[in-house]
């Protein structure tokens, strides 16, 4: 009868590697790229505006660090971003929210909630539709030439109340990179006010 044994050093090495793998997996789950689904778009104006927006996004939003975005859409890296864990996700060039499609089956004009959020000067204000899903809030721009959606997860009433704080961080970038429905940027508005 042969007796097999595993040297103690091999057991210790395997334990260390398992712990390192678990730590790496935990870290990657909190800092790695986030899978983001996007509606297809081939509109070059939308793709260009989204690419400009994503390229200019802040590295940190409400304490969450910018993470990569992956997905099936070939332009996902130019149309989406995520911060922190659980991830706050921005999707650019999404469809018009069903709640505001006039005459649509999910049109809910009497229950829709809106908010205008920007910096303290009001120069960089963006108007948003608010949709609460019980564990996350989705904010979608309503005054831009294309729809930008930001989904913020929350756990409890306190986090729910502060979910919209990310919009303060994002408003200046959106105002500078995504034109209004009239096709104007904030720099156009600044110039017309000086004339």
What would your notes on this structure say?
This protein has 6 helices and 10 strands; from the N terminus they run αβαβββαββββββααα. The longest helix is centred in the first third of the chain and has 24 residues, at 8-31. The termini are far apart. 35% of the residues lie in helices and 24% in strands. Strands 2-3-5-6-10-9-8-7 form an 8-stranded antiparallel beta sheet. Strands 1-4 form a two-stranded parallel sheet. With 195 residues, the chain is an alpha+beta fold. The model is unreliable at 191-195 (pLDDT under 50). The radius of gyration is 22 Å and the shape is elongated.
Please describe the topology of this protein:
Layout: H1 8-31, E1 34-35, H2 44-56, E2 60-61, E3 64-67, E4 69-70, H3 76-79, E5 80-83, E6 88-94, E7 113-117, E8 126-132, E9 136-141, E10 147-153, H4 157-162, H5 165-177, H6 186-194
Parallel strand pairs: 1-4
Antiparallel strand pairs: 2-3, 3-5, 5-6, 6-10, 7-8, 8-9, 9-10
Structural class: alpha+beta
CA-based shape: elongated
By oligomeric state, this entry counts as: single chain
End-to-end distance, in Å?
A: 97 Å
Task: Give the overall average pLDDT.
Answer: 86
Q: How large is the count of helical segments?
A: 6
Low-confidence stretches at least 5 residues in length (pLDDT < 50)? Answer: 191-195
* Rg (CA only): 22 Å
Cross-sheet strand order for the largest sheet: 2-3-5-6-10-9-8-7
Q: Main beta sheet: strand number and arrangement?
A: 8 strands, antiparallel
How much of the sequence lies in strands comes to 15-25%
Helix-residue proportion: 25-40%
Number of strands: 10
Write the H/E string, N to C: HEHEEEHEEEEEEHHH
């Amino acid at each position: 009868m042969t007796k097999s044994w595993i040297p103690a050093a091999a057991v210790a090495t395997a334990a260390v590697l398992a712990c390192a793998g678990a730590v790496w997996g935990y870290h990657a789950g909190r800092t790695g790229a986030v899978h983001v689904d996007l509606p297809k778009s081939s509109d070059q104006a939308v793709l260009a505006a989204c690419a400009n927006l994503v390229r200019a996004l802040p590295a940190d939003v409400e304490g969450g660090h910018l993470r990569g975005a992956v997905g099936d859409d070939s332009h996902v890296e130019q149309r989406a971003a995520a911060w922190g864990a659980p991830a706050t996700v921005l999707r650019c060039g999404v469809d018009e929210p069903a709640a505001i499609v006039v005459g649509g089956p999910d049109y809910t004009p009497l229950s829709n909630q809106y908010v205008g959020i920007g910096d303290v000067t009001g120069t960089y204000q963006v108007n948003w539709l608010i949709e609460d899903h019980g564990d996350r809030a989705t904010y979608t721009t309503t005054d831009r030439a294309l729809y930008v959606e930001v989904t913020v997860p929350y756990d409890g009433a306190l986090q729910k109340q502060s979910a919209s704080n990310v919009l303060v961080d994002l408003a200046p970038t959106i105002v500078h990179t995504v034109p209004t429905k009239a096709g104007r940027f904030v720099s156009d508005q600044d110039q017309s006010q000086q004339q």
